[in-house]
Design a protein that fits this description.
The structure holds two protein chains of two kinds. Chain A is mainly α. In chain A, 73% of the residues lie in helices and 2% in strands. Chain A has a single domain, classed as Orthogonal Bundle (ABC transporter involved in vitamin B12 uptake, BtuC), CATH 1.10.3470. Chain A is built from 14 helices and four strands. In chain A, the strands form two sheets. A two-stranded antiparallel ribbon of chain A has the order 1-4. In chain A, strands 2-3 form a two-stranded antiparallel sheet. In chain A, α3 packs antiparallel against α11. The two termini of chain A are 19 Å apart. Chain B is of the alpha/beta class. Chain B has three domains: 237 residues, Rossmann fold (3-Layer(aba) Sandwich); 180 residues, Rossmann fold; 69 residues, no CATH class. Helix content of chain B is 35%, strand content 23%. Chain B is built from 19 helices and 20 strands. In chain B, strands 6-7-8-3-9-10 form a six-stranded mixed sheet, with helices on both faces. A six-stranded mixed sheet of chain B has the order 16-17-18-13-19-20, with helices on both faces. In chain B, strands 2-1-4-5 form a four-stranded antiparallel sheet, with helices on one face. The longest helix of chain B is centred in the middle third of the chain and has 16 residues. Chain B is globular, with a radius of gyration of 24 Å. Chain B starts with a strand and ends with a helix. Classes of the chains: A mainly alpha, B alpha/beta. At the A-B interface, α9, α10 and α14 of A face α2, α4, α6 and α10 of B.
């Protein structure tokens, strides 16, 4: 290793968390910064558009990112452990197509969905084996899976959307219904986000995700079976993508073989805006949820402001660039001062 | 009394490299047992076998007289073995307290983390060592504090056998004293402690017995009370110490080649001035983090410069990047071959031609394979590089031959000044001696040679003059008459700076 430029002995004056540090630490948190940005966008928008501060607008925004948000939860955990999954868009579609096809051949929709989620988990397990046993990088393994699984979707459907209008209403309720006016998909997303955020922060077995991502060898020397951790997080990410797939199916009442193309980049962008590091070891579910919320908020604001659809992707790209650059520069400065 | 830990006839190969052969070792309860040997002698590999990181090809491990196979660090921990690694194995993004108790967390049956309990227990363990905040992320700590966290981590394991792999290499004197106080306390409690080091002062000041390794083999086990440092060193190197290093400069050094005045980088380096003369090898010593590497990197344009001047052969030069430094004839050879030095997967010849590919290019700018091969052949022969072919990647070579590839590349541009950062790290004894001769030969040919080394014997044996750094400043300059480990350690720890400053002035005349 190279020598560090830290002057020895200088950090006996510890910078972090000493005494009055709570407020400072709170303000230093990524999540708080994002929350402030989101509030700022809301404030500006409430003046810019009369429709912004309406219940139906917020309902639309929440609805638009909730299902994708489920995938972001898994992706964030995978990024923390040091992995990456480019196949989530294809896997969402695959779970949808498998469940839809099985329903069409007469299986109970709930069992069909279960099979869809299970097939997604199996894809995750296959990628995990290639990463952990064969030694491929997540990038390569999931790139291959992305292409293969998309091909499988096209093969199963012969390229035509499956029409599932015969799905029973109690199943469609999952995707289309509301509880006390709140769409059920939003409830599912929030529950999952809260549960996984809590687990990742506090549950003993989930801490191994951070340890492995931060320094795999150190984790291994501490008796953590890091390969196993990486494998299971890979499976979990795909499983959550599968879950999102069947919820999408319930919501739209159809299964399209082109569904979810390009979604992986949106999902990764949201996690990274929320503070996840592509190098592993860093990130939080709460941050990632705010990341996906911000992207979605910006999209719908641009629609309300009548900005061209063609501009929207560009603007989202610039937001990603700005968020990551600011974070990078700030952490560099912190390292120099620390 | 049965031994706490016994190794018998342990052997291990890594591909074609024989890392360990017929290694035996025994550790008693209540002793501090030094493991001495040069880099690559097999000390660390042996201990990695004990910790279950490396599986031996042959041999037996016994704990309390009972035979064990240790398949993982987890099993080693269960057997009461704690290991403080030389290269820091901590998670930088995770808090100090979580790092300290990572193994406990991994083995814990509790469903939820109790962070306040972890913090409380960490404070207890850390109290004896250092005053870092258990909530701080490890990545924000200095290297020496990270090392102390690593030690705290091993202390919490409730180990009966504690392995310390060069734990003091990144510590200050005061921290070293604290560490040994704790180690002596643990010995009184009946722990067996294995202390890997090549510092004679630590062996003779603190240890009960010393086992010496050389070239992956067990050489001898001695009672410290009944031996001398000279004896241990000659067993480490396998020959008389006197002819280990090439002869030094005979007579006064020539005209100055490189002069550095008031160099600062605004972060660590603070007003560093020195000069390098023709014919001499100039050594730079100091602890890790003292700014040794930063100094030479800054001269070569690899680090930021805030103020100061560099004069090469009487001409003031302004260098803002490494490409300019190369054009001026200055080459830096990194301490970290694998990360900063070589292209491990490219052929040897491409590695050698990389500094100035135009030398082996056709007028159209395409690489001329024959010319490239000829260049590599010429330099390889000069340095006695041993490789199956020049198309082989350096990743297949031993440490010593990898370093020769780096040196061949350095020579490919006919340098005026070369900066070598730990040129013999991870290099076996034979190649080490060859590298020293190569460097001496360069100095005799009029090339300016500056060598950074953490190994004091190497610095003393090789250099004609040694600059010592502490916290980014030059704390002294040691001429041939005052070259002892004690002098250098004193200066490196920042003590006696004023006395040395007088000496510095005297030398400058």
């Amino acid at each position: 290793m190279t020598e560090t430029s830290l002057v020895q002995g200088a950090d006996h004056l510890e910078p972090v968390g000493s005494g009055n540090g709570l407020l400072k630490r709170l303000l230093g948190m990524r999540e708080i910064g994002l929350l402030l940005i989101i509030l700022l966008v809301c404030l500006v928008m409430s003046f810019a558009s009369p429709y912004f501060l309406t219940w139906s607008n917020f309902r639309t925004i929440f609805l638009s990112f909730s299902v994708e948000g489920i995938v972001v939860i898994g992706m964030t955990m995978l990024l923390i452990v040091g992995g990456l999954d480019l196949s989530v868009g294809s896997v969402i579609c695959f779970a949808m197509v498998v469940a839809g096809k099985l329903f069409l051949v007469g299986l109970n929709p709930w069992l069909a969905s279960l099979a869809g989620v299970a097939s997604a988990a199996a894809i995750g397990a296959a990628m995990g084996i290639f990463v952990v046993r064969v030694g491929l990088s997540h990038f390569i393994a999931s790139l291959a899976a992305m292409v293969i699984v998309r091909g499988a979707c096209l093969l199963v459907t012969q390229g035509t959307p499956l029409s599932l209008f015969t799905l029973p209403p109690e199943f469609k309720f999952v995707g289309q219904g509301s509880l006390w006016g709140v769409p059920l998909v939003v409830v599912i997303f929030i529950v999952l986000a809260v549960v996984f955020d809590f687990l990742l922060r506090r549950a003993t077995i989930f801490r191994a995700v951070f340890y492995t991502g931060s320094n795999e060898r150190a984790a291994e020397y501490s008796g953590i079976r890091t390969k196993r951790v990486i494998f299971w997080v890979t499976v979990l990410c795909s499983t959550l993508a599968g879950l999102a797939g069947v919820i999408f199916m319930a919501r739209f009442g159809s299964a399209t073989p082109q569904f979810g193309v390009g979604m992986e980049l949106n999902v990764i962008a949201a996690a990274v805006i929320g503070g996840a590091s592509l190098k592993g070891g860093q990130g939080s579910i709460f941050g990632a949820v705010l990341g996906v919320a911000l992207l979605s908020l910006v999209t719908s604001s641009l629609i309300l402001l009548d900005v061209s659809v063609y501009m929207q992707d560009m603007i989202k790209g610039f937001i990603l660039l700005a968020a990551v650059s600011v974070d990078h520069l700030m952490s560099q400065r912190a390292a120099r001062e620390g | 009394m049965p031994s706490l830990l016994e190794l018998e006839s342990i052997a291990k190969r890594f591909g074609p490299v024989r890392a360990l052969e017929d290694v035996s070792f025994d550790l008693r309860a209540g002793e501090i047992h030094a493991l001495a040997g040069e880099n690559g002698a097999g000390k660390s590999t042996t201990m990695r076998v004990v910790d279950g990181i490396v599986q031996p090809d042959a041999g037996e491990i016994r704990i309390d007289g009972k035979r064990h196979r240790i398949r993982s660090p987890l099993e080693a921990q269960a057997l009461g073995i704690g290991f403080v690694h030389q290269e820091i194995a901590l998670c930088p993004d995770v808090s100090v307290s979580e790092n300290i108790f990572m193994a406990a967390t991994a083995a814990s049956r509790a469903r939820l983390m109790d962070f306040s309990e972890l913090e409380r227990k960490s404070r207890e363990v850390l109290a004896e060592l250092t005053d870092v905040d258990p909530r701080a992320k490890v990545g924000t700590l200095s290297i020496s504090n990270q090392q102390l966290v690593e030690i705290a981590k091993a202390l919490t394991l409730d180990a009966r056998i504690l392995i310390l792999d060069e734990p003091t290499s990144a510590l200050t004197e005061a921290e070293t004293v604290k560490l040994f106080n704790i180690v002596h306390k643990l010995r009184q409690k009946g722990l067996g402690i294995i202390h890997i080091t090549h510092r004679m002062a630590e062996i003779f000041g603190h240890c009960d017995r010393v086992t010496v390794f050389r070239d992956g083999r067990y050489v001898d086990c001695l009672d410290v009370a009944q031996t001398t440092p000279e004896d241990v060193v000659s067993r480490m190197v396998g020959r008389k110490i006197s002819n280990l290093y090439p002869p030094k400069l005979d007579g006064p050094a020539g005209r100055p080649i490189l002069e550095v005045q008031g160099l600062s980088d605004g972060m660590l380096l603070d007003d560093v001035s020195f000069s390098l003369r023709e014919g001499e090898i100039l050594g730079i010593g100091g602890l890790i983090g003292s700014g040794r590497s930063e100094l030479v990197k800054t001269i070569c344009g690899l680090g930021p410069r805030r103020s100061g001047t560099v004069t090469l052969e009487g001409r003031r030069i302004s260098i803002s990047n490494y490409a300019t430094a190369l054009e001026c004839g200055m080459v830096y050879v990194s301490e970290d071959r694998k990360v900063e030095g070589l292209f491990l997967d490219l052929p040897i010849r491409a590695n050698i031609s990389a500094l100035r590919p135009t030398q082996v290019s056709t007028p159209l700018g395409l690489i001329d394979r024959a010319a490239e091969e000829a260049q590599a052949d010429r330099l390889g022969k000069r340095l006695r590089l041993k490789a199956a072919s020049l198309g082989q990647p350096p990743s297949m070579l031993s440490g010593g031959n990898q370093q020769k590839v780096a040196l061949a590349r350095m020579l490919s541009v006919d340098p005026k000044v070369v900066f070598l950062d730990e040129p013999t790290r991870g290099v076996d004894v034979g190649a080490k001696s060859e590298i020293h001769s190569i460097l001496r030969g360069l100095a005799q040919d009029g090339v300016g040679v500056i060598v950074i080394s953490s190994e004091l014997p190497e610095l003393i044996g090789l250099a004609d003059r040694i600059l010592v750094m502490h916290e980014g400043r030059l704390t002294g300059e040691v001429g041939p008459e005052a070259m002892t480990e004690e002098t250098i350690i004193t200066l490196a720890s920042g003590l006696g700076a004023s006395a040395a400053a007088g000496q510095l002035e005297g030398m400058a005349q």
